[in-house]
Amino acid sequence: MTNHKTSSSSWYDWSTVHHFFKPLEKPLEIYVFIDPTCSSCFMLDRILKRLKLEYGHYFALKHVFSKQQRKSRSTEQSRNLQSGISCEKLWIEEEFAGHVPSIAIKAAELQGKKAGYRYFKKIQESLFMNQESVDSLDTLLICAEKADIDYEEFIRDLQSEAAIKALECDLRITEEMDVQELPTLVFFNQKMEEEGIKVAGSYPYEIYVQILEEILGFQPKANPLPSLEECAREFQVITTSEISYIYQIESHEVEHEMKKLMLKRAVEHIPLRSETFWRYM
């Protein structure tokens, strides 16, 4: 965590006004720096889901996409993707060759933040659930169809400068905030001109709740967790381990309860070798 300059009294000032927040007004903003193809970033999702369910009324999330440093790929493979649309090719400049999924997410975001988030989750599903290559243009286009965004507009935006510039903005923010490790969360109080609190890597859930309390200046009140069906509806796709983590129950209990929902045709069971996924129907 970074050192943040503030006085204890400035934090406590918030305790006198937090009861008067409007229903849609949220005092905090959390920047989530991630690589959409990074398994560690994907694992952070269980923490964010629980945090959203219990304390989402206090904060808004902003995803910032960057790239976890890995061994370089074949430049030609990354730059030259066969589109299959009018036999054209999608060209990616060499400096962005490793950012193809992030460029696609930014193209989807041009249709709105919610559209971009739906597309981002489909990218993760394709990679971590279906074990598909998200550097493949075919996969990127299938994700666009599944995310329920304007397909033709997405194709145009994917080949536009606007998507590249949007990604450049994310990379610039990553550099300016000196983010060296992914995932990283940065907590900001939108009502106070103070430095944020930066948390690199993953920590126990209680640490994030403690940070919320510190930056708010009062003890936040947790919402009661929803039913499992409501949770599945909220996130659309969720794993057994995530449910176990959120509800603090054993995996076999999760399986038992989710199979009841499967019999109600509320969820679809997707067993994989390493994890069990549940998709809301």
Sketch the major β-sheet: 4 strands, mixed
CATH architecture of the largest domain: Orthogonal Bundle
How many domains comprise the coordinates?
Answer: 3
CA-based shape: globular
What percentage of amino acids are in beta strands? 15-25%
H and E string: HEHHEHEEHHHHHEEHHEHHEE
Overall mean pLDDT score? 83
The fourth-level CATH homologous superfamily of the largest domain is putative protein disulfide isomerase domain
Organism: Pradoshia eiseniae
Protein name: Dithiol-disulfide isomerase
Pfam families: Thioredoxin_5
GO molecular function, one term: isomerase activity
Give a written overview of the molecule:
- This protein is α+β, with helices and mostly antiparallel strands and 281 residues long.
- The protein has three domains: 97 residues, Glutaredoxin (3-Layer(aba) Sandwich); 102 residues, putative protein disulfide isomerase domain (Cyclin A, domain 1, Orthogonal Bundle); 53 residues, Arc Repressor Mutant, subunit A.
- The chain is built from 13 helices and nine strands.
- The protein has a four-stranded mixed β-sheet.
- A hairpin with a 4-residue loop joins β8 and β9.
- α5 packs across α8, α6 packs across α7 and α12 crosses α13.
- The two termini are 40 Å apart.
- 30% of the residues are buried.
- The N terminus is likely disordered.
